[in-house]
Input
Amino acid sequence: MKLQWRFGIIAGLFLAIFSLYPQMKMLYLRGAEWNGHYAYNDVDEVAYGSYLKALIDGRPRKNDPYTGRDDSVESPQPESLFSIQFAGPMTVAIPARILGIGAPWAMTISGALAAFLTALAIFWLLGMITGDSIFAMAGSLVVLAGGALWAGEGAIGEILGTSYSYPYFPGFRRYIPAMAFPAFFLLIGLVWKIIDRETPKTEDQKLQPQNQLLIALAILAFAYTVFSYFYVWTAAAAWLGCLGLLFVIVRPPGVWDDVKRFAFLGVGCLLALVPYAYLLSKRSHTMDDIQLLVRTRSLDLTRTPELVGFVVLVVLVIGIFLKMFALRDRATLFAISLALTPMIVFNQQLITGQSLQPIHYQVFIGNYVAGLAVVVTFGLIWRTADGRERIGGKLAMAALALIAAGWGFVECHYTVRVLDDVNVMRDEAYPVGKRLTELAANDPNKYKQVVLHLGIAEGDDLPTIAPQSVLWARHQHVFPGLDWQESKERYYQQLLYQGVEERQLSNGMKKGEDFVSMIALFGWGRHTDRLNSEYKPLTFGEIDEEGRKYAEYSRNFNARGQGIPRLDYLVTPIELEQYLDNVDKWYERTDREQFGKYVLYRLALKSEPSVVAGG
Output
């Protein structure tokens, strides 16, 4: 049956609206006071936005927007997570630069476009499998609007009272993994089109050029995921391997022709991994530590996407036993491969001996594959159901689509509000960033200038708006410009300029309130058990020792010392303006400008330090 693409467009529009919901919420909250900033969906987006702005500005692929230490002949830089996974940001940055669109709008538009295209890709796949456009629309909404639900996260936690509402639509985190999603689901659709054939061999031979084109497109889609997001391409590889192995084991009719196609596809995918492996070999030596790579061979079978996959497999086994499905049917093997994929990615460490933040499989891809397995399996039942072409069947699918869309709005309502306050705060600070951009307009060293920003979230976000580097930011360690020790010392300086004392630092971490310091001083793996299977909570002894190191560093600090960043600007919330004694000890503050709740100063290093009262 010919697909009716208007239904796919409807699904895509719903998903685009969900992607834009945080922005619409910010506009509602800010009203006429909105300064023009984008609302982020996840706190990590500040790093992605900062890298994107650098690309839009024409800086090299290996850039560090937080320190200004970009790759050059004189100062070559190692590869980072961003420079290796460049496909997504480049896809956004190139048209943004041509059209003169800044990073905030580029983040907003690209997120909505990625959501729309992902919905279309899933619609196409489900439409090919079932021949039912209304079902395909409903299924696309179920997979994507239920993304957090398939992960056991999101709004359901607050509704049931088991946890808090987070994250918001994890697949819409821009541009990782959002830009990889259309390619991933396009790959799945292309592979289905390659293996879905009921034709005699003579006709199959006539289709050979078409198959070659499909294989080439599938390889390109896989290659795009490789250079977009690690967890997406490894999930794609796991699924492809699983599907190919199932075909070899079960041997559906015409399997050896399929094996040849899988072989061509596999070779093409492996070729795409060659330059990836080369870039990975040039990575920063701190990258593995930042990514919390763990050596383990432990089983991991209790995550929500796996449990969903188990249920799908049980349904398929029962269906095969009752002769609702045929094991050697290609669609059945396709559904089985999708159901098995979450179990493979969560347990690949049994073979590799390495585990890399499996929570990312849970919320950024394994959950969507599990949801797709559910919908495909239901689609196999639905395509043989009596009355599906009647008005009752169409109304049932339309109702399912409305329920899925309704759940999408529930997710938006509960999960977006978690970030409302910080998004408003970021927009309030936006004019300061615009002013810094104006001040740097004709400065050839603008990327090297350093801003001391005393707002944690706002400073983290500043490189998305302004070209200057920052003394310290929560996400700067994911770039290769700083090693771990220098990053810690910069945080010490940040605390020192704010007037934080040893006791304040230690007590905040002991109470579990100061997770920013936990991350800055001990790494991302020590503040939560979500990221690391070998999580070890901080001890009071470790905290006290770090407090002592900070106190010693503060006593011996010299702002004119070698290797100490020279500050050019200070941005502070007005309420902190009275606590700048340590800044004034070393710097002259001039040219005060106020932007709402924030104050901007130029800084000039003094020839001699001032005496701080009481210090």
Strands lie at 293-295, 354-356, 450-453, 469-470, 569-573, 587-595, 598-605. The two ends are 80 Å apart (CA to CA).
